[in-house]
Structures are given as structure tokens and as C-alpha cells.
Design brief:
binds adenosine-5'-triphosphate, Rossmann fold, nucleotide-binding, ATP-binding, alpha/beta, four-stranded antiparallel sheet, Phosphonate ABC transporter ATP-binding protein
Length: about 240
């Protein structure tokens, strides 16, 4: 569970980017973050995923106050989470299976990584995660040959195999064909429902937010101005956000 209270951030010139953002998110929620360009979506995701610092506010993750972590602690926690951007975090020179296996070992000690045995069991285990995102038949394909949407789904499998209980996604649909966009959103929705993973996803497509998410946050001027269960937004709600 994530709880944030009064998260605020200013740039050096004093411009307010996040303004007392507060919320509570339960396990398994799929949150779509919508808002105009420059409203603060990326900054919010970067702060929540501990990639950027904020000035004020409290951040609680599973009953642990993570507001003041040192860089090493923040790095360790980041390894437990998934982060998707418009550029999938995959190694194009390796196949999909190897990418997923690498993610499983990434957080282990150097010694374990060097001497790891990729047993048959490990392969079967990794295949389970590729199956979750519908890529069993692409397991041995070099990732460079996969489509943008398939790469993004390898990224989701990578997050799942390391046990990520939270996935932050910043515009993961950018540049994808409509069919691939739907598939990525379906996979994200499935991991929320099936695995109780929490997904917080900045997205510019209102239609996808309405159709796939469980909750919608509208951001304007660095504030959450709309926080509702996902459904078709009324014109008034759109006017509040955009
Ligand atoms: N390093 C920076 N210094 C000063 N201002 C910045 C910096 N980075 C971002 N901003 C400003 O902060 C505001 C929020 O930016 P942010 O990228 O979070 O918005 P966004 O909602 O993700 O926009 P977009 O949808 O266009 O990606 C914008 O006005 C942006 O110009």
C-alpha cells in the first residue's frame, strides 16, 4: 500500500511543480494519471519511484516511512519495483527469455550472478512470466525483432519475475499501434487483478484510461484535481483536468 501526504516540489527558480499531493493506493489498483502537457505527471511518477527528490511531504510504503531514504536505500527499493517508459527497458541483443532471466538475477549479489545456474527449472519459471504477457511463442526471439508493444510486454514480465508489487509507467503506449496499445493495457490490468500488483500509469489516451484503469487521477498545475473510479469522464470532469 502507498500513502502520500502533502508531497510538494519546486524547481530551483521557485516554480511549483507538485503542490501538496496526497493519496492512498491499495494493492492491485490500476491508476491512470491524466493531465495536460506540463501538468506534472512525469515529475510525480519520478518522485513516487524515487528517481527524483521532492521538497516536502511524507511517503509511506507498506507501513514503512520512505520519505528520507539515503541513495543506497532508495536504489535498493527501486530494484523491487518496475518502471516502464516509452522506451522499453530491454536488452535488444538478447532474446526475450534471457531478458526475463536477467531481471530475476539482477538484484542478486555479484557472486550469485556470476555463478548462477540457468537450470531447466529456471527457464520454465521464466517462461511462466512470458506466458503471463502472452509471449511464450516469442521466448527465443531476439528482442530486437519484437514489435514495440511486445518489447513493452517483455518489460512487464521482467518486473513481474523480480516480484515487483508496484509498477510505475510513464506513457508506455507512446509510439505503439492501437492493437499493441490495447494489449499492453490488458496485460497491466491483468497483473493488477491476478497478481495484486499496483500500477500507476501516466497516459495521454483518455480512452485507454477510461477502459482499462480502475481509478483515474487528473493532474493540473501539480495537484490531483480529480480522483475517481475509472469510467467514462463527463465533459465537466474533463474541463477540470484539461
Ligand atoms: N528540470 C526542470 N527545471 C525546471 N522546470 C522543469 C524541469 N523539468 C520539468 N519542468 C517543468 O515542470 C512541469 C511539469 O513537468 P512534467 O514533465 O512533470 O509534466 P508532464 O505532465 O509529464 O508533461 P508531458 O505530458 O508533456 O510529459 C512543466 O512545466 C515542466 O516545464
Amino acid at each position: 500500500m502507498l500513502t502520500v501526504r502533502n508531497l510538494s516540489k519546486k524547481w530551483k527558480d521557485g516554480t511549483e511543480i507538485l503542490n501538496k499531493v496526497s493519496f492512498q493506493v491499495d494493492d492491485g489498483e490500476f491508476i491512470a494519471v491524466i493531465g495536460a502537457s506540463g501538468s506534472g505527471k512525469t515529475t510525480l511518477l519520478n518522485c513516487l519511484s524515487l528517481r527524483e527528490k521532492w521538497d516536502q511531504g511524507q511517503y509511506i510504503y507498506n507501513s514503512r516511512d520512505i520519505s528520507g531514504l539515503n541513495p543506497f536505500q532508495a536504489y535498493s527499493l527501486r530494484q523491487e519495483w518496475g518502471f516502464l517508459t516509452e522506451n522499453p527497458d530491454v536488452n535488444p541483443s538478447k532474446n526475450a527469455l534471457k531478458n526475463v532471466l536477467d531481471s530475476r538475477y539482477q538484484h542478486m549479489s555479484l557472486v550469485r550472478r556470476v555463478f548462477r545456474k540457468e537450470s531447466q527449472d529456471e527457464h520454465v519459471y521464466a517462461m511462466d512470466f512470458l506466458e503471463k504477457v502472452g509471449l511464450l511463442d516469442k521466448a527465443r526471439e531476439p528482442v530486437s525483432k519484437l514489435s514495440g508493444g511486445e518489447k513493452q510486454r517483455v518489460g512487464i514480465a521482467k518486473a513481474l519475475i523480480k516480484g515487483a508489487k508496484v509498477i510505475f509507467a510513464d506513457e508506455p503506449l507512446k509510439g505503439l499501434q492501437p492493437e499493441a496499445q490495447n494489449r499492453v493495457m490488458e496485460d497491466l490490468r491483468n497483473v493488477c487483478k491476478r497478481d495484486q500488483v499496483t500500477v500507476i500509469c501516466a497516459i495521454s489516451s483518455l480512452e485507454h484510461a477510461e477502459r482499462y484503469a480502475s481509478r483515474i487521477w487528473g493532474i493540473s498545475g501539480g495537484k490531483i484535481v480529480l480522483d475517481i473510479a475509472a469510467r467514462k469522464l463527463t465533459q465537466r470532469e474533463k474541463d477540470i483536468v484539461f
